[in-house]
Amino acid sequence: MEEKMMEFFEVVKNRYACKKFDGRPVAKEQLDAILEAGRLAPTAKNLQEQRIYVVQSEEGLAKIDKVTPCRYGAATVVVVAFDTTNVFTYPGEKRDSGVEDATIVATHMMLAAKAEGVDSCWINFFDPEVSAKELGLPENEEVLMILDLGYPVEGTTPLAMHTQRKELSETVTYM
């Protein structure tokens, strides 16, 4: 059990936002494992409102390039959206589960990618409405994020500040 826990923390510790991919598409076996991790992610009331779009075609990647300058050479891009008509509304009716559930799904896929030897970059530098329209998504779907996936150009490393983290005492309060 301790060995598995260490493997998980190594994945969490070593995952970084890769911003220089070598252009190779993600291998099918690795991509399937990444997508399965997203499928297994928990969602409120198990509604599973996520909608995942795998973009690998030249036409699809060109559409991604039209909505964001942040593809960084990735040949495999995953668009994470959610069905706005299939969400759980929380008490107070000011929030619903759409964004958080899609975020959990995306995070599972991002960490699974690292565990599979695939680097990633969480992209949110785009207009969700323009992106959904460009990709031809149904009107009831909202794009949460774009996940670049691939293999880094040789010599690519995390930013220097990647390992800088506040102490727990600065971010956690026991009550």
Task: Note the run of SSEs as H and E.
Answer: HHEHEHEHEH
What is the overall number of helices?
A: 6
What is the average per-residue confidence, as pLDDT, rounded to a whole number? 95
Major sheet strand order: 1-2-4-3
Rg, rounded, reads 17 Å
Helix fraction, binned, reads: 25-40%
Specify the biggest β-sheet: 4 strands, antiparallel
Low-confidence stretches: none
| Total count of strands | 4
Describe the global form. globular
Percent of residues in beta strands? 15-25%
Summarize the SSE layout with pairings.
Blueprint: H1 2-14, H2 28-39, E1 50-55, H3 58-67, E2 76-83, H4 98-115, E3 119-123, H5 128-135, E4 141-150, H6 168-171
Antiparallel strand pairs: 1-2, 2-4, 3-4
Helix pairs in contact: 1-4, 2-4, 3-5
